[in-house]
Design brief:
2 domains; mainly alpha; globular; single chain
Length: 451
């Protein structure tokens, strides 16, 4: 009954009829003397080198995100300058009547401020013209670079100290305290030990490194043996080092006998780092030591067995322990090496040209700034060096910007903070500038485990 109904065919009759139709079509084609072959896909033209460069440039890679973070920080800093200047802000009260006044005053303020920032940190065209005309010497031309390198030298050491601990899975925020103990021992060796010039400098530098190593060993051993968190330990040791410096300065034999305020004796000239460009410029040999330390840390991390163990522990302590790596020993070595670097940064503050005696503020904030430098440099040694140069340029140029443009020096600190904020939030930069996702780019900062 079902076969006689034309509406209800068998399910496998329809595929058979389709196959018969295809066979008949093929036979007709062969009888016509023609055969059909599938066309090969046309090759796509290779993009030009310029196109590849532009595509990679506008991708969310490390270079692009860092550069655009600087641009955003500069723009936000310009807005803060305008808002904080009452004269410029007054022109916006009648912007609908005379918009040119607001625009011109804003441009004048911002352009002069950033021009002075550049002149004070990198290059001053007026000083160069004066050198060509003979009205000033070559020292004025190199003065901006000299100031930038002077401020950058200690930041390289403290930035490397923080970055090295990061790579090992530890969050060392005690670089401030380690630099403080380093500056104490370096200064004591500088004015208490009567040694010949070359040996005196070497002993003072090593004393600073030893002080930082001791102050790094304490949280390292507590972390390795007792499991105490390094963040808490280093915070407490920062306070201990600061108050110890304050107490030590006013002790007999340390305080300057000709002064009544809290200042120590001056470091002997035989223990001071030599200046590289003469007595009129402050840049000293500490910047050369900073470059050497950067190379040493890069070699340690990437070429040595200890560096491999350090990175393995930082990536996964349990897996490293299973592989036979002593996590306890590695934690101690990480903090000791980190302390050595921070201690060298502190010794630069008193053996270099920044200061020649101990004061309560001799270390400034180089330990805390080292955290920002490490983050900005992506916790990589050469990146830390470049980040320290940037921060040194902001500090050196900020002094001129304050003197010539009347901009508060605190604005430079705000610029530093904005740069770090934007770099630490790559998704925000990517969303603002509509960056494409980069295949090989990993924009997450390598922070310590458990923080």
């Amino acid at each position: 009954m079902s076969d006689s109904n034309p509406q209800s065919g068998s399910p496998d009759k329809e595929p058979a009829s389709e196959a018969q139709a295809a066979q008949n079509a093929l036979g007709n084609t062969e009888r016509a003397g023609t055969t059909t072959t599938p066309k090969a896909p046309e090759p796509q033209p290779k993009p030009s080198l310029g196109r590849l460069f532009l595509d990679n440039l506008w991708a969310a890679n490390t270079f692009t995100v860092t550069l655009l973070s600087l641009v955003l920080a500069i723009v936000v800093g310009a807005v803060l300058m305008i808002v904080s200047d009452p004269d410029v802000l007054h022109t916006y009260t009648y912007i609908t009547a005379r918009p040119a006044d607001a625009l011109n005053s804003s441009w004048t303020l911002v352009s002069e401020a950033y021009a002075n920032l550049f002149k004070g940190s990198i290059f001053d065209p007026e000083a160069f013209s004066g050198w060509v005309n003979g009205s000033n010497g070559w020292q004025a031309v190199l003065a901006p670079i000299s100031e930038t390198l002077t401020y950058a030298a200690p930041l390289v050491f403290t930035g490397l100290a923080v970055a090295l601990a990061f790579r090992g899975g530890l969050f060392n925020i005690g670089a401030q305290g380690q630099a403080t103990i380093g500056v104490i021992l370096a200064a004591l060796a500088g004015f208490l030990l009567p040694l010949p010039p070359g040996l005196h400098l070497l002993v003072a530098v090593l004393a600073g490194a030893l002080g930082g190593a001791i102050w790094g060993f304490i949280p390292g051993i507590l972390k390795a043996r007792a499991g105490a968190h390094e963040v808490i330990n280093t915070i407490m040791l920062n306070y201990v080092a600061t108050y110890f410096l304050t107490w030590l300065i006013v002790q007999n034999g340390v305080q300057d006998p000709t002064r009544t305020d809290a200042i120590s004796k001056a470091v002997d000239t035989s223990a001071q780092l030599p200046r590289l460009l003469g007595d009129n410029l402050r840049v000293h040999a500490g910047i050369l030591l900073a470059v050497l330390a950067t190379w040493a840390v890069a070699w340690l991390l990437n070429r040595s067995t200890l560096g491999f163990e350090l990175r393995a522990v930082g990536a996964n302590p349990d897996a490293a322990r299973t592989a036979g790596i002593s996590v306890t020993r590695t934690y101690i070595l990480i903090m000791v090496f980190s302390g050595i670097l921070a201690g060298l940064g502190g010794s630069n503050m008193v053996l270099g040209s920044t200061a020649s005696a101990l004061t309560p503020l001799v270390v400034a904030q180089i330990g805390f700034d080292g955290i920002l430098v490490a983050l900005l440099g992506r916790v990589k040694p050469w990146g830390v060096l470049l980040a320290a140069l940037l921060f040194g340029a902001l500090q050196a140029g900020g002094n001129r910007m304050q003197s010539y443009s009347g901009i508060s020096l605190e604005l430079v600190t705000v610029l530093q903070a904005l740069i770090v904020i934007f770099i630490a939030a790559p998704a925000l930069v990517k969303a603002i500038f509509q960056l494409r996702a980069a295949r090989a780019a990993r924009l997450q900062t390598s922070l310590a485990k458990g923080w």
